[in-house]
Amino acid sequence: MPKIVLLCFLTLCSIGFVHSKELPDFTGLVEQYGEAVVNISTVQTQQITGNQIFPEIPNIPEDSPFYEFFRRYMHPFSGPKKYESKSLGSGFIISKDGYILTNAHVVEAANQINVRLTDKREFNAQVIGTDRKTDVALIKIDAKDLPVVTQGDPEKLKVGEWVIAIGSPFGFENSVTAGIVSAKGRSLAQESYVPFIQTDVAINPGNSGGPLFNMTGEVVGINSQIYSRTGGFMGLSFAIPINVATEIATQLKEHGKVSRGKIGIMIQEMTEELAESFGLSQARGALVVSVEKDGPADKAGIEVKDVILKFDGKDIAVSSDLPRLVGNTKPKSKVPVQVWRDSATKNLTVLVGEMPTDEGDRSRKQSKAPDTSNPLGLALNELSDKQKKQLGIENGLLVEEVQGGIANRAGIRQGDIILGFNSQDVTTVKQFNQLLSKVEKGRNIALLIKRGDMTTFITMKLDN
Fold this sequence. Notes:
Elements (H helix, E strand, L loop, with lengths): L1 H21 L4 H7 L3 E12 L1 H4 L13 H7 L7 E13 L5 E5 H4 L4 E5 L5 E10 L4 E6 L8 E2 L10 E6 L7 E14 L2 E9 L11 E3 L4 E9 L10 E5 H14 L5 E2 L2 E5 L2 H7 L7 E6 L4 H5 L6 E5 L2 E2 L5 H7 L6 E8 L2 E8 L1 E2 L23 E5 L2 H7 L5 E6 L2 H6 L6 E5 L2 E2 L3 H9 L6 E8 L2 E8 L3
Parallel strand pairs: 7-12
Antiparallel strand pairs: 1-2, 1-4, 2-3, 3-6, 4-5, 5-6, 8-9, 8-11, 9-10, 10-13, 11-12, 12-13, 14-21, 15-16, 16-17, 17-18, 17-19, 19-20, 22-23, 23-24, 24-25, 24-26, 26-27
EC number: 3.4.21.107
Keywords: Hydrolase, Periplasm, Protease, Repeat, Serine protease, Signal, Stress response
Subcellular location: Periplasm
């Protein structure tokens, strides 16, 4: 009996030894490439007034018995004050003379940027450029002969492959976490220009902007964001492919901005039901729901209800493929486009335009307060001519606030643009409320929404 027990014990030990031999060893990778990862801390100075600190303090008249009290004890807070907010992030060195890649949200609007190397040296950094649409930023420190990362090819990544992240979660510098590639080419809401790499690598606040390495020590992505209900890691993290980031960094370095193509359309995802109604054998392509008048698409002959199947010879499997392809196309390029119209394919050629660098800037400095007099729970405001031009639209209402209720349950967000109510374009808040007042309770309505570079219908039912 003891011999049998001993044999089983030795067998289990040998199995455990074999399994341990199969587990990856990250030590050499971290030792060789970890020194090119940096910690980034920023300071942002904001000016606030006393009313922002104590909004409940009234204007006290001089003949009030409380005037002397407020004059003595509240006066120090009545004038403008400076407030400093600090944040942490990560980055990695891409050139020996000090160019560093990180996330735009890490350094944007910062008054001071401090970069700390693994050897404890610290430098003030200069922002070369940022790109909100991809969340990529290029910064530079004044240093020479720095350690640099080796850039890999994200296209060669395989789902299930081991990857590691190095960064400063919660300020803990040079922390290493590991996991696998969960998926590739992920599309996220309001992120039309990045085919994200999804991983289960632990990413937390402070990891943003840090590198994602493959097992050969090559950087394949920039850790950018997580999906979380708690603010901390929950098994879903997303990285910007390094080839996307490098292209952005090159443009920022050479021109200080990013030039993107634009054809002037709004699109919607194809569903099986829509595909069947359009006579398509499968749900693919991007359904055109709006065409900018006299824009590149309009001049090329693209029409509302066309389904774009190919752009520049590349298949459009899902609608989110199209903004990336168009955005990555050099302005003034002539590009072939294949559309599905009247149950047949049609080949067109579009002369790609250029997207304004400030497109999508939704200034909230309106001449009047938002109108909140509708039962959907929406605070709406009309767009200025400048805003319409920047957004490339002719009509629409800005959602200033979602105050709960029907619209909130349906998924309407602050900053959305309402372009249409059922089949009608909307231009004024008064018109919107008039259309809404004619809908019977318990009936469905469909709002055409522009969110970032995506356009879609959102349906909701009026409460009984």
